[in-house]
Design goal:
The structure is a homotetramer of 142-residue chains.
Chain A: E1 6-10, H1 26-41, H2 45-49, E2 53-64, E3 73-83, E4 87-96, E5 102-114, H3 125-135, E6 140-141
Parallel strand pairs in A: 3-6
Antiparallel strand pairs in A: 1-3, 2-5, 3-4, 4-5
């Protein structure tokens, strides 16, 4: 996997749990921060969130490889791996900034929905072109 | 302080932090659960949340007396202490259910706002009467 | 899938987001509540969390089928589907209590680790027997 | 109030609620980020968190003046207003970065505790000197 975009996140106290490490559910928040940063960077954040098409998350998963602790700085790498007919698949990797240790990996699938008919909606052409231009040949598109 | 209403909450894992105790910010979520339970119990939840008047929190505070830990059961006591012209003041106490130890205390002040003019709005009569009937003489009302 | 255990959870205000529905990351907290309730019910909560073996989450995933909203009551169904050599796989389903509508599904995989050597550790016999007795023939065990 | 230190925080999706604005409880997380950044900046983060003295939060409060929304950038201003015998009082102000609008204000009081005897503990001299040097004459110290 090669990523062209990353976000920096410092672990906050409430994100840790009694085991002394980041609570696993918080990684989905980190993925969210990565996704929004990625889309903002491409000028697609508004298009993804609002307007004629709604965007719903339909699936997400994460693998946890090593713990992260309070005040550590994480690098959240984000890319769009696939654009299907009406869905977009993001991929994430979270490393410890300090030594590059892999902390977690994950993905999420989002579906475009027509805000009136509430039916699946083709991913807009402008969205496709912008992502294709950024990701290049590693992007799978339908 | 005497309370006529309480909610039971079991501490969840993500609510603890690396210090092994409930993260202090989570008590504001517990107060919220208490407030919503209280209002639902009096049939006022919808009235408080929606309709012609919006309800905004303008102040909240908490004192922390002793720690709470993962899987412990808390009793969140809730009452309305005061109804002002356009504001409502809640009061909270959180005890450990097991031994009655005081864990935290707090309050919150909410303001009724007209959803069109966005100006302070008198607390509705029905809301006043229902709370007065429940709380009795300990309620301060203007 | 057949589940023999469920937990009841009422959606809290901070669990919703600006889209008006439960933020997807909160379902991992709901799964956590289900898992802890399940283990407490079988008398395995302490064994799972502490002692000679640590328990680490290594994977989790969720599929989101329909939205849940503030104040709605959810039923979180929990079961252990598989016990491997050193891992345990939980399965979850979240329904709306009111009308039984499917809201989300998911799973999580946890690994037992020796707290001294930090190496994978066989799932203890007592844990295996207790789960087997509860789940019966639907449990896959190695 | 004059502040010499600020942190920048972008509002995350899970920090908003169904009302479309940042959930009020999240401001205590923002205060926490401000506090940790402030202490790290003065080289006091480790001293504040660990070692011979524990640090417990005993009180916090917030006033909410105007809403903040998803993806808006906030400036969290932090200062230490007072150092008592065994306590430290932080003060916070949260502004919208874009137009300087006041969003929230708050404070928190933390008590130094001896980690063995569990009794109040004088705020260490090194901590006092470092904060005094940074804050100057606006700091009240006992």
């Amino acid at each position: 996997m090669s990523f062209k975009f990353s976000s920096e996140i410092r672990v906050r106290l409430p994100e840790t749990d009694v085991l002394g490490v980041v609570y696993h559910g918080c990684f989905f928040t980190y993925f969210d921060v990565g996704r929004m940063d990625y889309l903002r960077n491409l000028g697609l954040l508004e298009e993804f969130r609002t307007g004629e098409s709604l965007n719903l998350i339909v699936h997400t998963a994460a693998d946890f490889r090593s713990p992260a602790r309070f005040d550590e700085v994480l690098l959240v790498y984000t890319r769009i791996r696939k654009i299907g007919d009406s869905s977009v698949t993001f991929e994430f990797r979270v490393d410890l900034k300090d030594d590059g240790r892999l902390v977690a990996k994950g993905d999420s699938v989002h579906s475009f929905i027509d805000s009136k008919t509430w039916k699946p909606h083709r991913v807009p052409e402008h969205f496709r072109k912008t992502v294709k231009k950024f990701e290049g040949s590693t992007l799978k598109m339908k």
